[in-house]
Amino acid sequence: MVAAPYLWLVVFFAIPFAIVFKISFSYMVTTQPGYAPLFEWVEEAQRLVATLNIANYQVLLQDSLYLSTFLYSLKVAAISTVLCLLLGYPMAYAIARSAPTTRNLFLMLIILPFWTSFLLRVYAWIGLLKTNGVINNSLLALGIIDQPLVLLYTDFAVYVGIVYSYLPFMILPLYSNLEKHDLTLLEAASDLGARPVKAFFKITLPLSMPGIVAGCLLVFIPAVGEFVIPSLLGRTDQLMIGTVLSAQFFGARNWPVASAVAIALLLLLLLPILLFQRYQQRELEAARR
Amino acid sequence: MAERVVDRHNQYLRIEGVTKRFGDFVAVDNVSLSIFKGEIFCLLGGSGCGKTTLLRMLAGFESPTSGRILIDGQDMAGIPPYERPVNMMFQSYALFPHMTVAANVAFGLEQEGVARVEIDRRVGEMLDIVKLGEFAKRKPHQLSGGQRQRVALARALVKKPKLLLLDEPLGALDKKLREHTQFELINLQEQLGVTFVVVTHDQEEAMTLASRIGVMNKGQIVQVGTPTEIYEFPNSRFVADFIGSVNMFEGRLIEDEPGHVRIRCEELDSTVFVSHGISAAPDARVFVAIRPEKIEMTRGQSAEGENCVGGVVREIAYMGDLSVYLVRLDSGRMVRVTIPNIERHDERIVWDERVLLRWQPSSPVVLTQ
Description:
In chain A, 71% of the residues lie in helices and 3% in strands. Chain A has 13 helices and 2 strands; from the N terminus they run H-E-E-H-H-H-H-H-H-H-H-H-H-H-H.
């Protein structure tokens, strides 16, 4: 029974990962399944021949397009994370400090969007941001602008989409941390001469660091690989890595290259993931004390 | 209790007619109190009596609904906690978990803008006083309960406050540590000369620590006095019952002279002669309070005269140093008697023996309320 989680991980993670890893060393062929087999039994020589095609990885390193795409994805994810933090921290703080009854209401409101389709919500932003959309029409009607703003298919639109979609992932871990804070610590700080703002930076902020780290990683890691939002809302001249992967896989049907991109993405995120694991571990130990 | 320097001319802390209401609930009801510089004053009372609310008003976490608080002559109205010359030691200690012991103690000094060199010196000094010098780099979770308490104390005292407020300081400690810490606290207070205001529900703690005690009930101060005054001369049934154990008998005042009174008690089926006068109406209904340790118990059959009553031993609780006897009087009433175990075991009075209980005329306290 203890083995059940491990079994789950093996079936749904380890095996698919191994498959993707294997495909990334292959090359594209026009027959089914679309990529050449890694291992071939050569009857004549009575040998198992393994063909490892590293050209896919070479392309990733040599083609400047891939490099700029990776960097762009990291940049967008990083900025979105910071925006989520700046917006999400005050919200999480306000919820944590509110009365228990209102608190549950606020939490419900945060989680409510998840009950609707993610895709539909992104499409809704198209309706809001497009040239003939709700925002532009309202601003024109109010006379604030006389030419519609270009909001859609820009970096701005991608940020709006990502921050809007990922904000709950920042708020919930932050709230979970802030809610557990001992408020007598703030009284003690006040008693010792610290004004409320000082007490926040010296006491609340350091103690909320695990929540901040958890929230940032929960936003950053998936945001790097995000492809729905940049596909629907983003620029056409600069793609994110998720879009490229999707184009290679579905568009060009080049599974090997797409797999190589996926593996490269995973390697890129290895450091943040390990950081996340380490923080989770520390939190568990702290809670046990 | 050693002799401490209390300046009885300096009413350092004056609480004048302070009331605190939370909606319809009156937590503190028109309390007036003067606390002298250098003393340890204990606010003693059960849960919900208002003592913690009063303490929080002194610290600045709550504002009085009416009345005022003056510290060293300065009115504290509208002054927030971070501007008051007062520091508090919290019941839960409230140590900052992410800071070392030294950083915790240094926190208050940093807020004052003291120079780093000076901070390090004073922190080192304070840690040595509370005997935590070698623990400076540890974090609170690496310390024992008693050590954490000393950090909390050091943190509050390092700022040399005019007033130190302590909220149930010994509550979280085990019995042996509590006794040890009680004396340490007293020594510390004498050494530093800081005025202490302690809030506690534990009467033993109050009796040991305090130079004066203020007993509280339902938001009001019921009696203020030294531990001796409170114990030997309670002013009401509530105080007599709250502090220690007491035997309370209802009676009628039959003789009222300046030098003595006589009270007829039905439960004792006898007269109590008390060797001091009281102020009450003749034939008034009064209560006679006699402490268990003030009663003499001897074997005997019939009670004669005043201040004497007979009964049968029903229960004995052996505490080692003394024994608590529950004696059933002929009237059916149970009386609690405490006898130190002076005699050897086989000579002591045992269950179902008939005994005579006697007390000195100066021992009972007559209460009219």
